[in-house]
Structures are given as structure tokens and as C-alpha cells.
Write a structure and sequence with these properties.
Blueprint: H1 5-9, H2 12-19, E1 30-31, E2 35-38, E3 41-45, H3 58-71, H4 86-99, E4 103-107, H5 110-121, E5 127-131, H6 136-144, E6 148-152, H7 157-165, E7 173-178, H8 190-199, E8 203-207, H9 221-224, E9 233-237, E10 247-251, H10 253-262, H11 264-267, H12 274-289, H13 292-311, E11 322-328, H14 330-342, E12 345-346, E13 348-350, E14 360-365, H15 372-389
Parallel strand pairs: 3-12, 5-6, 5-7, 7-8, 8-9
Antiparallel strand pairs: 1-2, 2-3, 4-10, 9-10, 11-14, 13-14
Helix pairs in contact: 3-12, 4-12, 5-6, 7-8, 13-15, 14-15
Length: 392
């Protein structure tokens, strides 16, 4: 059998393309945050993770431009060797103070942060336990680690305790959960998870990629519950609320020192580019200087959840600006996506295996910079299209 046979046999995407319902890899010609242009057409963007709308903030833009002028476009090396700028260290210090941990370590992407952290910490005699709806980067980090991996049912504490009880008492244990789950927009019940971790002598890592800048005054899920001191490691990304690219892990200084010297995705990757670091620093400052953005974001999320539900849509267990519109059947969801796109609304089409079979959904996510007029237009369009397609 030829290695490439699987490639030639893969036809699913081309079949959907031929039907005119392919929702991926759409090139954007222009973006202003809440609105984008694709194929010459202007659309309201409700598929971005730009939660605070900072990608177009003047302070963030200026910081990135100034960093290019001062440092150039790249560090051309890993943090381990020639790729550490004082700018990286400044971002790490300020993040640690903001998140409420002793130290942070900045990676080149959020995906690499999870890969490197989990693989570095979970050795052959250790066990890592994950929620079944954790992000793919967590799953891949567990696959790279030499230890055993266990999974528990989504946000099910009985299932989590059963997994912990089944662990060797002598093994090191790490529980990893998303703070906010990226498809459902629901929140991990940290107030229930933490006692179970303590009871079974397990460490807890929270992936706060979709929580930092959104919950807890911007500090994430642990702060949202007032439990930052009880979470061992907090992971975050810069590609969402921070309007940049990169990731970080926050925790005790000794633990981060170990990760810094053993995480392969950290040691063997080029460091964050100077404009990305400067943009993240500026975004952090804006979060602290303009808390009304986070308040506006929460108000928008509440308005849109109520609005979708009033129309008869299933929004799952969402408690955040990530609001799933559960359609169910794959083709019905794709028809809904195409009709919305043609009507000027850009949402994200989510199919299995990203969600369970029969649970295809439109992933909508909102920004603090969406106007009331845009939001009302979104709801009106969802009502019109939903009734036409027959999903409401």
C-alpha cells in the first residue's frame, strides 16, 4: 500500500465543495474586527475569538509597529539560545502579576504551550486525566507524554472521581480541563474539581485560552471562582483577547523553571516575534485600563443568549460569549451556515468529530466592540434564515 493512498481516497471535503456548502479556509480581504470582507462582500463577523475587540485598538497597533521598528520582524532563534528579548521577560513579569501566580513562561503559540507543558511534566510513572471535551492541544500533549492518559465525561464529577480512584496511589497525577470550553461556551466547575484533586493528591492545570480577558475581570476562570491559589497551572493564549499570537503557562516559579528547561516545544521553537510580544503587552494594559470592555462583553453575551433562546434555538450550556447554535444534522447545519453567509453573517460551521455525531452546530462568538445595531441585525437574520431552513 502506498503511503499517499489515503490522500487520494479522501473526498469528503471536495464533495461538500461541489455542493457549494464548504465553510472553511475562506480568504478575508479586509477585517475591521466586527466586520470583514470576503469575496467582495461585507459581513458581520460572529466567528472570531477577538473577544475584547483589541486587534484594531490604536494602542495595540502602535505597540506592534514600534516593536518592528526597534527589534525587526523576528528573533530568529529559540528562547533557549538567542531568542529572548527583555520584552519577553517584561511580558512574563506583568502577566504573572495580573494572573496572580509567581511566574509565567511565554511560548510561541498556545498549542505549543499545552504540548510542551504536559509532555514535560507527565513522565512514565505519571497519569494525566482530561475532560472528554478538552481542546485538541491538550489531547496531543497527553499523546506526546510518556505517562498514562485517562479521560472523564464532560464536566461529570462522578466520572472524574472514578478516574482518580482508578489511579495508582503512588503515581503523579495531573488533571487538565478547559476553563471555558471552546465549542460549548460552558465553564469547568472548578469549585467541584479542586476538592477532588486535593482528595486524590492530583495537580490541576486549567487551559484558560477562552477565559483570560473574558472571566474574572479578565484574569480567567480561577479568578472567576476566587480559586486562583488552588489551581496549580493556568494556561492562556494571546491569539484571542490579547489580539496577538503566542501562549503562556503560569504557576510556581520552580515548576516553570523545570518546564523552561525540559519542554521541547519551548526549547526547539523560535520565540514569539517582537510585534506579537509588544501587542500582547499593550493588550494587557488596555484590559486593566478599560475594564468596561469586559463588562460590555458580558452584557452582549447575555443579550445574545436570551435572543437566540427566544427564537427557539438550542444554545447548549453556554455561559460566555461563545454561544453554540446546535442544529444537529450535518447538512441542515451547512445549509444554515450558507444561508447566513449569503445574508451577510459570518459564523463558524462545526461538524463531527469536533462535536459528537448528530450535534453539528454553528459556533457564534461575540466581541465587546459589536454595536447594538449589529447584534439586532444578527438576531433578525437568524430568525429569517432559521424559519426558511426549518430549524426553528
Amino acid at each position: 500500500m502506498d503511503l499517499f493512498d489515503k490522500c487520494h481516497a479522501y473526498t469528503r471535503a471536495k464533495e461538500v465543495q461541489a455542493l457549494g456548502f464548504y465553510p472553511y479556509f475562506i480568504p478575508l480581504e479586509h477585517t475591521e474586527g466586527t466586520e470583514v470582507v470576503a469575496d467582495g462582500k461585507r459581513l458581520i463577523m460572529i466567528g472570531s475569538n477577538n473577544y475584547l475587540g483589541l486587534t484594531t485598538h490604536p494602542k495595540v497597533r502602535s505597540a506592534a509597529i514600534e516593536a518592528v521598528q526597534q527589534y525587526g520582524t523576528s528573533c530568529t532563534g529559540s528562547r533557549f539560545l538567542n531568542g529572548t528579548l527583555e520584552l519577553h521577560r517584561e511580558l512574563e513579569r506583568k502577566l504573572a502579576a495580573f494572573i496572580g501566580k509567581e511566574a509565567t513562561l511565554v511560548f510561541s503559540t498556545g498549542f505549543q504551550t499545552n504540548l510542551g507543558t504536559i509532555a514535560a511534566l507527565v513522565s512514565r510513572a505519571d497519569i494525566v486525566i482530561t475532560d472528554k471535551e478538552d481542546h485538541a492541544s491538550i489531547i496531543d500533549g497527553c499523546r506526546l507524554a510518556f505517562g498514562q492518559m485517562k479521560r472523564f465525561r464532560h464536566n461529570d464529577m462522578t466520572s472524574l472521581e472514578r478516574s482518580l480512584q482508578g489511579c495508582d496511589a503512588k503515581a503523579g497525577k495531573l488533571v487538565v480541563v478547559d476553563g471555558v470550553f471552546s465549542m460549548g461556551g460552558d465553564i469547568a466547575p472548578l469549585a467541584e474539581i479542586i476538592p477532588l484533586c486535593k482528595k486524590h493528591n492530583a495537580r490541576l492545570m486549567v487551559d484558560d485560552a477562552h477565559s483570560v480577558g473574558v472571566l474574572g475581570g479578565g484574569r480567567g476562570t480561577p479568578d472567576h471562582f476566587g480559586l486562583t491559589d488552588n489551581v496549580d497551572l493556568i494556561m492562556g493564549t494571546f491569539s484571542k483577547s490579547f489580539a496577538s499570537l503566542g501562549g503562556f503557562i503560569a504557576g510556581d516559579e520552580a515548576v516553570l523553571h523545570y518546564i523552561q528547561h525540559t519542554a521541547r516545544s519551548f526549547i526547539f521553537s523560535a520565540s514569539m516575534a517582537p510585534p506579537s510580544v509588544a501587542a500582547a503587552l499593550a493588550a494587557l494594559e488596555v484590559m486593566q485600563e478599560e475594564p468596561e470592555r469586559i463588562e460590555r462583553l458580558q452584557a452582549i453575551a447575555k443579550k445574545m443568549r436570551r435572543g437566540f433562546q427566544a427564537l427557539g434555538y438550542d444554545t447548549g450550556a453556554s455561559e460566555t460569549p461563545i454561544i453554540p447554535i446546535v442544529i444537529g444534522e450535518d447538512m441542515a447545519m451547512l445549509q444554515m451556515w450558507k444561508a447566513l453567509f449569503d445574508a451577510g453573517i459570518y459564523a463558524n460551521a462545526i461538524l463531527p468529530p469536533a462535536v459528537p455525531p448528530g450535534k453539528a452546530l454553528l459556533r457564534t462568538s461575540f466581541m465587546a466592540t459589536h454595536t447594538d445595531e449589529q447584534l439586532d441585525q444578527v438576531l433578525a437574520t437568524f430568525e429569517k434564515v432559521g424559519r426558511k431552513i426549518g430549524v426553528i
